[in-house]
Amino acid sequence: ESALRFGTPLLIQDAETYDPVMNPVLNKELRRVAGRVIIEVGHQEIDLSPAFFMMMTTRNPAVEFTPDLCSRVNLVNFTITRSSLQSQCLNQVLRAERPDVDKKRSDLLKLQGEFRLKLRRLEKDLLAALNEAKGSLLDDDVIIAKMEKLKTEAAEVGEKVQQTDTVMREIEATSQTFQPLAQQCAGIYFTLQQLHTVHFLYRYSLQFF
């Protein structure tokens, strides 16, 4: 109640067994009364603070939430998988062994994102130009000139994207030489994770690893 009223964060653990009394919060069943935002939890009406937010967590990596719950929340999966850990280990190895390759890859990824963003902007500009056209497109010299300019810019950006893709493939080929090491590192981590079956004190965090 105090979290809802005063806007303090609310953390609910073991989300797979959450109390149904929280359904009005998940459903955002709000009412506005004389400038107040009211939510009914249980049989009590509470003034809802705009700063309120709620987090639900679970320690069970195999839990499956119902579609009903998934449709009402934003899911964030922090489960460590072998492939994601291999990717992180590969990044760390590249940063240590080949900082030049790591920097070049980071720069290219940024460039690719910028190029694709520019392509989407050009597509929107083209659609906007077509919507502004009045009468026949062939008779509108301004629209034709604008479309030709957009076409030229799109071709230039598309060519740059292809060039960066080619360089990225070369960089990825270099990175693959360190892939066996990344696989072994991930294997060591998951081996450490199984040591708790030998003794409950053998528990290691990802940060320790």
Oligomeric status: single chain
Helix content: 40-55%
Low-confidence blocks of residues? none
Helix and strand sequence: HEHEEEEHHHHH
Would you count the extended β strands for me?
Answer: 5
Amino- and carboxy-terminal Cα gap: 40 Å
Instruction: For the largest sheet, list the strands in their spatial order.
Output: 2-3-4
| SS strand fraction | 5-15%
Shape: flat
Radius of gyration (CA) equals 27 Å
| Total helical segments | 7
**Structure class:** mainly alpha
Largest sheet: 3 strands, antiparallel
* Nearest-integer average pLDDT: 81
Q: What is the structure about, briefly put?
A:
The protein is mainly α. It has helices at 2-6, 23-27, 67-70, 82-97, 99-132, 141-175, 179-193, and strands at residues 10-12, 30-33, 36-41, 44-47, 54-56. A hairpin with a 2-residue loop joins strand 3 (36-41) and strand 4.
Report on the architecture of this protein:
It is a single chain. The chain has helices spanning 2-6, 23-27, 67-70, 82-97, 99-132, 141-175, 179-193, and strands at residues 10-12, 30-33, 36-41, 44-47, 54-56. The strands form two sheets. It has a three-stranded antiparallel sheet. Strands 1-5 form a two-stranded parallel sheet. It is 55% helix and 10% strand. The protein starts with a helix and ends in a 16-residue tail after the last helix. With 209 residues, it is mainly alpha-helical. It is built from seven helices and five strands. Helix 5 (99-132) runs antiparallel to helix 6. The longest helix has 35 residues, at 141-175.
